[in-house]
Amino acid sequence: KESAALFLLVRVGGENTTMTRKFFVGGNWKCNGTIEDVKKIVTLLNEAEVPSEDIVDVVISPPFLFLPLVKSLLRSDFQVAAQNCWVRKGGACTGEISAEMLINVGVEWVILGHSERRRLLGESNEFVADKVAYALSRGLKVIACVGETLEQRESGSTLAVVAKQTEAIADKVSNWHSVVLAYEPVWAIGTGKVATPEQAQEVHSELRKWLQDNVGSQVASSTRIIYGGSVNGANCRELAAQPDVDGFLVGGASLKPEFIDIIKSSETKLSA
């Protein structure tokens, strides 16, 4: 319903534009959990009273092994994401999972380009972009991650780094309708450190300006840019209040009851 929609006044290219961007909260469980853990977390999510799907998209990303289980147990207004997928159709790629397989088991979303894969597995900007393009071509929706290291932030190159990462994706993607861009400063992931609301807003605003200048005003105003990096129940509302922060990609806190508070932070936008 229109009354439940989230209307934001965003400043793009020097002009005020009324635009609808629904809040987005993703829970990245990473390489954690057992069947017993999964059932407990899903029960917590299923019983939670949270804003409706008209207000917030909630997407849960368990390890590959648990995707079918979570998909079968999770409430219908929450969606499920894989944490990665292969860059092309399957075949002789031992250990990989293809986009086609994810579609086959009813998974709608995939996280691509997470800093842990970039750093630990050497995924380049171009490789990530190829994966984003292929996943989109198969019908998956993509949470595409960008972010700088501590060394890059301290050297003043944050904006250049995230622009280059985003540019690689933009070179391969023409339809941004199914893309959520996740800004995750590497130095804030799993460290307990978190970008200040002002730091997060600065990068999100610059990313939106980059999209405006290099992709187009419609993409810039409609693409959701979410923040990830030690988001928790204590800091989520202040971060959510920033005009260009459209939600979160949550790591460790998505395994805890406080994840419910993070989902509820979407209400901050309604009172803005």
What does this structure look like?
There is one protein chain. Strands 9-8-7-6-5-4-3-10 form an 8-stranded parallel sheet. A two-stranded antiparallel ribbon has the order 1-2. 42% of the residues are buried. It is 39% helix and 19% strand. Helix 2 links the parallel strand 4 and strand 5. Helix 5 packs across helix 7.
Topology record:
Elements: E1 7-12, E2 15-20, E3 23-28, H1 35-47, E4 56-61, H2 67-73, E5 78-82, H3 99-104, E6 109-112, H4 115-121, H5 125-138, E7 141-146, H6 150-154, H7 158-172, E8 179-183, H8 197-214, H9 217-222, E9 225-227, H10 236-240, E10 247-250, H11 258-264, H12 267-270
Parallel strand pairs: 3-4, 3-10, 4-5, 5-6, 6-7, 7-8, 8-9
Antiparallel strand pairs: 1-2
Helix pairs in contact: 5-7, 7-8
Describe the structure using short key phrases.
two-stranded antiparallel ribbon, disordered N terminus, single chain, 272 residues, alpha/beta, 8-stranded parallel sheet
Total strand count, please?
10
Radius of gyration: 17 Å
SS-derived structural category: alpha/beta
Largest sheet: 8 strands, parallel
Work out the strand percent: 15-25%
* Helix-strand pattern: EEEHEHEHEHHEHHEHHEHEHH
The pLDDT mean sits at 92
How are the strands of the biggest sheet laid out side by side?
9-8-7-6-5-4-3-10
Q: What count of helical segments does DSSP give?
A: 12
Q: Please estimate the helix content.
A: 25-40%
Low-confidence stretches are 1-18
Spatial shape: globular
| Intertermini distance | 19 Å
